[in-house]
Amino acid sequence: MPLLTLHNSLVTYLVVGALLFGMGVYGMVTRRTLIGMLIAAELLLAGASINFMAFNRFTAPDPAFGQIFTLFIMAIAAAEAAIGLSIIVAFYRHYKSIDTDDAVQLKG
Amino acid sequence: MIQTLTTPDGLVGIIFLFMVVVTLIGGLVASASERLVRAVIGLVISFVGVAGLYYFLNSPFIAMMQVLIYVGAVAVAISFAIMLAAPEEKKKFSPTNPLTGPLGLISAALLTSGLITIALKTTWPIMPKVNNGSVKIIGIQLLTNHSMVFELISIVLLIAILGALVIARGGREH
User: Fold this and answer.
1) Is the C or the N end of chain A the one with fewer CB within 10 Å?
2) What three-state secondary structure class fits A15?
3) Which domains can be identified in chain A, with CATH numbers?
4) CA dist., res. B79 & res. B64, Å (int)
5) Exposed, middle or buried by CB within 10 Å (0-12, 13-18, 19+), for A62?
6) Which residues of B fall within a CB distance of 8 Å from A69?
7) CA angle at residue A8 from B112 to B137, to 5 degrees?
8) Residue of chain A whose alpha carbon sits nearest to that of B13
9) Are A64 and B131 in contact (CB under 8 A)?
10) Burial class (CB in 10 A: 0-12, 13-18, 19+), B75
11) Quick check: helix, strand or coil at residue A33?
């Protein structure tokens, strides 16, 4: 029964990663708020991490490399979330809004 | 059919399919729901599913880190930001371009189908493993081969914490 042995094929993980990446792109394009875009960015990073881990498991000679890279992605994502959220909070204090349409003061 | 489902291998397959479904449904909720609180909950569900996928990829350590860092820290930080920045649900947005939704859908679908086509059409080479990728080997490599990146990432995290404090604190007095 091929449906139950999907977890042993590289393509399954690549497809799941691609789908998560696509959802992240859709959220990034359509969201109107800064926090929504941050959530979409997390989805993008999760899709990329799944790809790294899948190649790490199936094709890479050294299976520690991909795990270390995924750890670094997690650290960068945590730093990005901390900075992004504090910028959002500061932005909210100024404009009383987190709508991306209000962040246009630098517009010429 | 029922007999294959109740063998250990069949159960493993079922759990894997469940994790994939959880990941994808969580991602859909996170990217398409109207309210931000629901999007965060979708993100948490999706991350739990991704942690399950990592477990299937022979990395229980990364699966644990995923739950600790993403579900435990990032999602909680995002929900705190939602509460602090209280986006009004009823707020009238300026009229959105009616093309945004379909164009976003088309671009996401094109990217996804392209990636899936590449994944299906390529024959990926399988290399022999040189070690088993255990936590011990990860630790040794982090402190030998990747020590430079390891130190850099700790500096980045430190600066991010300080920067977040400075940015979020400014303007509180007035």
Assistant:
1) C
2) helix
3) 2-97 (1.10.287.3510)
4) 21
5) middle
6) none
7) 100
8) A4
9) yes
10) buried
11) strand
Q: Do B163 and A89 touch (CB under 8 A)?
A: no
Q: Name the residue ranges covered by the structural domains of chain B.
A: 1-88, 132-174
Q: Which chain B residues touch A50 with a CB distance below 8 Å?
A: 50, 53
pLDDT confidence of residue B173: 61
The pLDDT of residue B89 is 55
The structure tokens 């109107």 sit at A32
Nearest one of A43, A16, A67, A101 to B78, comparing CA atoms: A43
State the nearest Cα–Cα gap between A48 and chain B, in angstroms. Answer: 11
A64 within 8 A of B141, measured Cβ to Cβ: yes
Q: How many residues does chain B have?
A: 174
Residue with tokens 């995002």: B78
Question: pTM of the entire structure?
Answer: 0.88
Q: Would you call A10 an interface residue with chain B, using a CB distance cutoff of 8 Å? A: yes
- With respect to CATH, is domain B1-88 assigned 1.20.120.1200? yes
Asked if B22 reaches chain A (Cβ–Cβ under 8 Å), the answer is no
- Greater confidence (B91 vs B118) lies with B118
Nearest by CB to A72, from B9, B104, B149: name it: B149
Highest mean pLDDT among A26-40, A59-73, B38-52, B80-94: B38-52
Average pLDDT over every residue of B48-65: 92
Inspect the interface and report whether the beta carbons of B112 and A21 lie closer than 8 Å: yes
B95 pLDDT band, cuts 50/70/90, is low
